[in-house]
Amino acid sequence: MKAAIVLVAAMLASVAPVPAIAQAYWAAPAADDFAYDINAVQAPWSKADIDVSHHDRIYVSDPTSTKIVVIDPAAGNELGRIDLSKSGMAEPSFSSPNVQRLAAARDGRTVATLATRSVTLLDLATNTERGRTVFETSPTAVAFTPNGHELWVSLGDEYAIAVVDPKTAREITRVPASGGAGATILSPDGRYAFVSLTAQPSVLVVDVAHRRVVGHVASTGAGAGAIAVSPDGKQIWATRRDSGTTTVFAAKPPFAVREVINTGPATSAVNFAQRADDSFAYVGVGGDQPGIKVYRTDSLEAVTTVPLQAAPTAVWPSGDGTRIYASLAGTNKVAAIDTLTYTTASTIPISTDAQSLIYVPGAVRSGKGLANLVPSGRDAALALAAR
Fold first, then answer.
1. Domains in the chain: how many in total?
2. Is 87 among the domain residues?
3. Could you report the per-residue pLDDT of 170-213, keeping only the tens digit for each?
4. Residue 326 falls within a domain, yes or no?
5. How far is CA 28 from CA 37, 133, 166, 224, 358, in A?
6. Where is the secretion signal located (predicted)?
7. What CATH number is given to the structural domain containing 182?
8. Is residue 305 part of a domain?
């Protein structure tokens, strides 16, 4: 017995402590019984073979509160909200608002969400928080590695990228990003991370395994922007809001720039939809004529522009590539765009404003997926939005 106690004590002593820069809280994820192909994800690791169904969910962050709106895309309506302020986790509580960016793990089990000075991990089977990492400053972006073993969190004000273990919500290490870490995406093979720098006109390329910077890709302009990888894993598209441009470059060394596209005023969100053998990029623009510009990824030819009621703050494809969903700034609405006709097929009213949006195929693996959702009390809000 004494030997066993000594062994356990030694094992506990060998576990690295949580870094002083972060605190973590964690709970085990719930089990499920829904068969799911982890390779069948439209973006950013794609195979267009998951039809839109009631198993799918759209998650929309509210930039002014602690809530995340949950939508059934097959029904085209809001189901309720996940309220992070009601978490059963230990302190610090989510008294601070500004739920911002969202990211989903490839297996569709977990969503990471950014808020003031923290990143929270949500178990999609139960719609509850199962982990949280707290930082000294507020994160600016978040992305999972394709295998789901790591979460890369951009800390713009600390000029670094924090690497977090999603299983424990503990910070593992940091990668310096002297130009201010912004939007981040991982290559489909998990080898490289691409980080759009906010203080420099550059995209940082990081070797994920060795945690070292291996390249810089020049972009037009610095500041805010978005970044995405094409479904075939060959291209990176990085937008810049202030310059109204999108830089397209190779996702493999030497990361050569193919073209800088003048996409338009207030260029923001970017994502892709795969249809049969064709891949298309969808780039959100604002200004006097807000909409989404569509480009072929093979020729970079401009296909069309889908007009929208307001500038899109985020765009994301359905699991089969038949729809692109866009959150519309200041409208309490999400637009569903038909990728065959390039028209708005429907508009989904929601109970809050929208900052970020992601589509998770097969998020509901058993039951109706309504557990622990807070009623939105959306009747009055939706009536107001419909005026």
1. 1
2. yes
3. 999 999 998 899 999 999 889 999 999 999 999 999 999 999 99
4. yes
5. 22, 15, 11, 35, 23
6. 1-22
7. 2.130.10.10
8. yes
Residue 15 lies in a domain: no
Report the chain's mean pLDDT, rounded to a whole number: 84
Burial 31-53 (b: 16+ CB within 10 A, else e): ebeeebeeebbbbbbbebebebe
* C-alpha separations of 360 from 117, 186, 241, 338 in Å: 25, 17, 26, 18
Q: How far apart are CA 169 and CA 133, in angstroms?
A: 6
> Can you tell me the distance from the alpha carbon of 264 to that of 347, in angstroms, rounded to the nearest whole number?
24
Check pLDDT > 60 for residue 383: no
Examine the pLDDT at 12 and tell me if it is beyond 80. Answer: no
Task: Tell me the percentage of the chain whose pLDDT exceeds 70.
Answer: 81
Q: Is 369 exposed, middle or buried (0-12, 13-18, 19+ CB in 10 A)?
A: buried
Q: How confident is the model at residue 47 (pLDDT cuts 50, 70, 90)?
A: low
| Helix (H) or strand (E) run with residue 216 in it | strand 212-218
Residue found by looking up tokens 């990211």 in the block: 103
d(CA 1, CA 275): 62
Whole-number Å distance between alpha carbons of 211 and 164:
13
Q: What sign has the CA pseudo-torsion 348, 351, 355, 356?
A: negative
Tokens (6 digits) for 126: 């139960």
Residue 284: its pLDDT value, please? 96
The span from the first CA to the last CA of the chain, in angstroms, equals 72
Strand order in the sheet with 110-115: 23-26, 128-134, 118-123, 110-115, 102-104
pLDDT tens-digit readout, 14-45: 333 334 344 555 565 565 554 444 444 455 55
Contact at 8 Å (CB) between 190 and 145?
Answer: yes
Q: What is the DSSP string of 167-188?
A: TTTEEEEEEE-TT-EEEEEE-T
Query: What domain range includes position 220?
Result: 21-29+36-385
As a whole number of angstroms, the distance between CA 180 and CA 340 comes to 38
Give residue 97's pLDDT. Answer: 43
In degrees rounded to 5, what are phi and psi of residue 86?
-95, 15
pLDDT of residue 6: 38
Nearest 10 degrees: Cα torsion 172, 208, 315, 362: -70
pLDDT of residue 377: 63
